[in-house]
UniProtKB/TrEMBL annotation:
One of its GO terms (cellular component) is small-subunit processome. This is Anaphase-promoting complex subunit 4 WD40 domain-containing protein. It comes from the Eukaryota. The keyword DNA repair does not apply.
Amino acid sequence: AGVQCVAFSPAAGSSLKHQKSVAGASQRPEDKGSLMGGRLMATGGYDGKVKLFNAQTGLCFVTFAEHTAPISALCFTPQGNAVLSASQDGSVRAFDLLRYRNFRTFVSPDGLRQFKSVAVDSGGEIVAASASSGGYNIYVWSIQTGNVLEVLTVHESFVSSLQFSPSAGHPGQLISGGWDGKVCVWDLYATKGIAAEPLNCPSSVLSVAFDPRANDHCAASCMSGQVLFFDTSTGQNLGSID
């Protein structure tokens, strides 16, 4: 089956620390395969399977088969101890990278929703996913409890992309980009589901990303071919690439 999405684990020492803990907990052959390099790669397939690879050797050492429909998006926690998958089967699943099990399953509180994108905050405490069916909502859950914390409802069309800020000063700041041409900035810890004034783009937003230097800057790619840059703290347009 084809691969629809790919994600890499963090490159920093947290990933290596995690791998040492795996080595101490198990000596299975597949675990040894995962320890041969410092990073992991996850793939999500049209067959609903999430596979983990050693990024250095290309060895696939774990396959998760709990989903029953194609995988739409993947992300690792910043700590490198779990991978999360969003699927068209109406669930977001969290997989433990120590015991290799599906330890949490997230679903919408208002019926079956197919999910398009997924993101996890810098503390590894909350996960957000956008629905591609049944409305244009963004759902936010607690990873620890699995409970729904927020349902965000500003977008007027399909939400194509999500990302949390890497800044320690804004741990719950989330940006979302939609086909309505809006980039919305949410501070989930401070404003409880109320978005700041949307950052407007000239056409549908295909993807959004924060600057990894944690300087409150973000970028949005648009259907028109432009990439726009914004300061999320002020709402200022910093420029564009045509």
